[in-house]
Design goal:
The complex is a heterodimer of chains A (82) and B (249).
Chain A (H helix, E strand, L loop, with lengths): L2 H15 L25 H12 L16 H8 L4
Chain B lengths: L11 H4 L3 H33 L7 H28 L19 H26 L5 H32 L5 H20 L4 H6 L5 H10 L1 H20 L10
Helix pairs in contact in B: 2-3, 2-4, 3-5, 4-5, 4-6, 4-9
Classes of the chains: A mainly alpha (82), B mainly alpha (249).
Chain lengths: 82, 249
């Protein structure tokens, strides 16, 4: 899956689960937890969605809160292969 | 696991499975159940140890917390041993904790609400599995042992949480109380999400395991099971005022 497709799917998931309507300025750098768009209780569901998207489990022992800052950090943490 | 307690029971997807597939799923369902109770008990023990000998914990409470921690530790050994022996692993949890600000007493009330959620939901399953003669004797025995200990923990938890509520909740602002109620309803929903584990479905040989989870979360038969299993817990939370009404689960 191409990067832009992944980012679009992450954005769509966030929009669907958002606790408040996304503003017109929402982009890949918008902090989703800090602004209360998602809460910590959304993380498990989000991780399962990410696992399904990338076709592989994430290392549960190494899930860092910082990875959930915004769409760009999510992409870097879970989809960029080193 | 009794068929009626299997997470996708009552759905066309379950009906389409062969007996062999159902039995295999049953093994992984019990492993997932034991794993999620174990994973729920880890932060519980951490929180209980933190509360030992605090000025705000009376001598009687501290004395009981020692027993609580001891028994929870033994439960984790028991569940871990079963999962490692029969599944080759314990299913990990995928939660993260984020720092946040609390009103006075809110963190304490939230902690004991989490204790109640993991223990009450677990106990609902323990009792039904223990009574079911179709279930393997070892699995029944594990559920019986857990239920006997949990009955004491739950009795303590109900009284202690009610006392915490009486002490703290009247001091909270309407906004704090509304925020807490919204969190608790969301926490209950998130806790139920752990019962529909895509990795567990995949290990049991079911294709499209993430879709199976989404199907179960949205299927009325599964929602009815969640409501049945949560009824006692929800009634308690409504009675103590921690929930305003029965949440959609």
């Amino acid at each position: 899956m191409q990067e832009h497709e992944v980012r679009t799917k992450l954005r769509d998931w966030i929009a669907k689960r958002a606790k408040k309507p996304l503003t017109a300025g929402f982009n890949d750098e918008t902090p989703v937890l800090e602004l209360g768009i998602l809460s910590s209780l959304d993380i498990v569901e989000f991780v399962l969605f990410i696992e399904n998207l990338r076709g592989d489990e994430v290392d549960a022992d190494n899930i860092q809160p910082e990875a959930f800052t915004n769409i760009s950090t999510l992409y870097s943490a879970f989809f960029e292969r080193t | 696991m009794p068929p009626e307690l299997i997470s996708i029971f009552g759905t066309p997807f379950y009906e389409a499975l062969s007996d062999k597939q159902r039995k295999r799923l049953s093994l992984f369902e019990i492993g997932n159940f034991f794993s999620l109770v174990l994973q729920g008990e880890r932060p519980l023990v951490q929180g209980l140890v933190h509360r030992l000998y605090l000025k705000s914990s009376s001598c009687e409470v501290t004395e009981y917390l020692h027993h609580f921690v001891d028994e929870e530790n033994k439960h984790m050994v028991m569940f871990g041993e079963f999962c490692n022996r029969y599944l080759g692993k314990v299913y990990p949890e995928k939660k993260i904790a984020l720092a946040r600000d609390y009103s006075k007493g809110e963190e304490e009330v939230a902690f004991f609400c989490k204790v109640m959620v993991v223990e009450e939901l677990g106990d609902y399953y323990n009792v039904l599995i223990d009574r079911d003669e179709r279930v393997d004797p070892l699995v029944r025995q594990i559920n019986r042992v857990h239920h006997v200990d949990e009955a004491r923990h739950l009795a303590f938890g109900r009284v202690h949480l009610a006392e915490l509520c009486e002490r703290h909740v009247p001091q909270w602002s309407p906004e704090t109380l509304a925020g807490f109620r919204a969190w608790l309803a969301e926490y209950l929903r998130a806790s139920w999400g752990d019962y529909y584990n895509p990795t567990m479905y995949r290990d049991a040989g079911l294709a499209d395991s993430y879709d199976v989870r989404q199907m179960a979360l949205n299927h009325p038969a599964c929602a009815a099971q969640r409501a049945r299993a949560s009824a006692k817990l929800v009634k308690y939370f409504v009675k103590t005022g921690l929930l305003a009404e029965e949440p959609r689960l």
